[in-house]
Amino acid sequence: MQEYLLLIRTEGNPWDILSPEQQQKHVEKAAAYISNLVKEGKLKGAQPLEPEGKIISNTKGAWKDGPFNESKEVIAGYFLILARDLDDAINIAKKNPIYEDQLKARIEVRPIKAVEGVNV
Amino acid sequence: MTNSIQINQLIDHLFRRESGKIISVLTGVFGSENIQLAEDVVQDALTEAITQWTYNGIPGNPNAWLYKVAKNKALNILNREKYKRKYSFEVSKFSKLEELAFDSPLDEHVIKDDQLRMMFVCCHPALSPDSQIAFILKTLCGFSIKEIANAFLSNEESIHKRLVRARQKIRENKIHFELPATSELQNRIETVLQAIYLLFNEGYSASAGENVIRYELCQESIHLAEIIESSTVVKDKSNVHALLSLMLFNASRFHARQDELGNILTMSNQDRSKWNKSLIEKGFYYLQKIKSSSGVSSYHILAAISAHHCAAPEFNSTNWKEILSLYDSLLLIDQSSVVLLNRSVALSKVHGANAALNELNKFAGDEFLQSYYLYHATKAELYTELNRFREAADSFQIALQLAPIKAEKELLQKKFLHCREKV
């Protein structure tokens, strides 16, 4: 098993176009998704992120803090999961119900760097 | 990176129900001129719930979670200078919000009274019946504009406009978020009940639309009437009980009215084992609660008629004699064409198809009935019973042209062809 970080990318705040009933349906699907991962021992953590922040850079000793994101897309949250391999991790990402209710959602699947003999 | 993932479930329609409750409570805080603000706060709280719960799971007490978040958002608004100026909040509103038992345990009575106040705002006589029910659905039932548009076969834009106008009327007429004076209460309750019954019929009538959403309209109507039923403010609840009973009896047959292929089944062809027993039981429960002392309303008589249908184990054992005499009493209160039409069915069962046809033919000049497909379909059925197939076919053909939905048309088409063969 290897750790993967799933970064959930969305555009804007598309939830308010859904009715309360549809919103609830989505929450229920997401809750079932999470609870499956927990049962299979594949979920190490998950959190939503605020749609704000700063990007800090340092050029020749001068600090700069710019807008953290200039495109419409933001990272809305992350899942830290355990998967057998990249394909397994991709499959887990594909099952995220966010794809059903947010047409512009994208998930970035990134293996956490493993160094043989150290953290593997 | 340690966060506890919670595994809990939500009860059905929680979001919808809670948004109705919280919008009512917050409208009490912000004032009815700021209903939109209350709606926005609730929408924000729900959005917050989605973003949290889709990562962390559903918390143990989701209601309390939503209330707490909504309360904090409301307090933020009350505290911000620019809102204070814009909405002219009074200081007393802060204390009202602070006092509210927003964290569990929730005081259900406080919430119900606010929902009742909200109903009086929504059903104020200054608003048209159409606006009243659209507004009820939006504020008290947590429907989206799109869902309301689907339910009314309208489009989102016109529903949106209708809601904007309703909010405007509330501001212009200074309709306060309060219970009417005792002297006025009973009259105002009547307007609310009428709106609820209209909402129910929107859902129940087979005119069109998706089955799912139509059934939900029926459920919501019953739910709203139950809120009034449990209120301590309303003293005379006879009409509330009668309306509840009527809606429950009718709703019990909702899913038996179509077969698997979507064909419409008239009451004589319905599989009575598919009638919802628990709704029927509840219907009888409320029917028994009606106090005879407070006069008879049309809800009461219609409920009694519906009770006779529900009580009959099969179509042929229906107590038509009682039903006919109930229709006769109904005519004393309500002489509308639809009542006359429905009465004619009972009349035919008691005194024969000829008697019913004679009665119906008296309305040859009634514009409403002439353009109502069920008038012609009923006549056609009666002609069929008398083996007068030529006239039956003619009437079926007119009904066929007037019928609003496909499933009805198909049923009528079948009957029309059957009669024509026999001519």
What class, by secondary structure content of chain B? mainly alpha
Q: From the helix content, strand content and strand pairing of chain A, which structural class follows?
A: alpha+beta
Question: Strand percentage of chain A, roughly?
Answer: 35-45%
Uncertain ranges of chain B:
none
CATH classification class of chain A: Alpha Beta
Q: Please state the overall shape of chain A, judged from the principal axes of the Cα atoms.
A: flat
Mean pLDDT of chain B: 88
Describe this structure in words.
- The complex is a heterodimer of chains A (120) and B (423).
- Chain A is an alpha+beta fold and 120 residues long.
- Chain A has a single domain, classed as Dimeric alpha+beta barrel (Alpha-Beta Plaits, 2-Layer Sandwich).
- Chain A is built from 3 helices and 6 strands.
- Chain A has helices at 20-39, 86-94, 98-101; strands at 2-11, 43-48, 54-59, 62-67, 73-83, 106-111.
- Chain A starts with a strand and ends in a 9-residue tail after the last strand.
- The model of chain A has no long low-confidence stretch (mean pLDDT 91).
- Chain B has 423 residues and is mainly α.
- Among the domains of chain B are: 236-318, no CATH class; 344-423, Tetratricopeptide repeat domain (Serine Threonine Protein Phosphatase 5, Tetratricopeptide repeat).
- Helices cover 69% and strands 0% of the residues of chain B.
- The mean pLDDT of chain B is 88.
- The A-B interface holds A 13, 15-16, 18-24, 26-28, 30-31, 34-35, 38, 43-48, 76-77, 79-80, 98 and B 1-3, 5, 7-10, 13-16, 19, 43, 46-47, 49-58, 142-144, 146-147.
How would you concisely characterize the structure shown here?
Chain A is of the alpha+beta class and 120 residues long. Helix content of chain A is 28%, strand content 38%. Chain A starts with a strand and ends in a 9-residue tail after the last strand.
What keyword list fits this structure?
heterodimer, A: 120 residues, alpha+beta, Alpha-Beta Plaits, four-stranded antiparallel sheet, two-stranded antiparallel ribbon, 3 helices, 28% helix, flat, B: 423 residues, mainly alpha, Serine Threonine Protein Phosphatase 5, Tetratricopeptide repeat
